[in-house]
Amino acid sequence: MTAMTTASPVQRKVPRPRADALRNRERIVSAAREMFTEFGPDVPLDEIARRAGVGNATVYRNFPDRDALVREVVCSVMDRTNEAAEVALAENGDAFEALERFVHTAADERVTALCPMISSTFDQHHPDLVDARDRCEELIGEIMGRAKAAGQLRTDVDVGDIMMAVAQLSRPLAGTACFSVDRFVHRHLQLFLDGLRAPAPSVLPGAAMTMEDLRKV
Length: 217
Known about the structure:
Blueprint: H1 19-39, H2 45-52, H3 56-62, H4 66-90, H5 95-109, H6 111-114, H7 117-121, H8 127-149, H9 159-169, H10 182-194, H11 211-216
């Protein structure tokens, strides 16, 4: 009598998303990023779909609710900012120039304009967000540490000081159009960066702001 053998289950490959589906998702995230920056997290999803050039069903197929879309936007912006920081660290050039590149890129991505939505719209302890935020803090700290070790960055500043300044200088003033002051953002950021150079011409009041301090603001 022959022994019965059990057939091994067939391993099926997970189908890869179609190229057009990926493009639609990217368009949705890009449109949402623009509109969240302009109007805040409560902008109607129908309006986001319209700007992205897709149907409402496509938005909901990719993002089951508003929280999922907001989280994807914030994480994608932080990921691109982190990539810019990694590129700056990989270069063997001037340490302060690496810090400058990061600051200007963070302003272009409007990462600090989006981050306030985190506490008001979804769980700020979501693993994807925590990973992106921790990586960002680690990279900025490494860039600043390199510039301080080279004697180019004043020693009485911390990561929170950088992010607070980027947040304040890359947002429009109350009562002004969101993008009408864009042409001044990098000018004002450079003025701030020049004030970070060592040797410091003055003593700063108070203590340096850490990321933990910033999260409590």
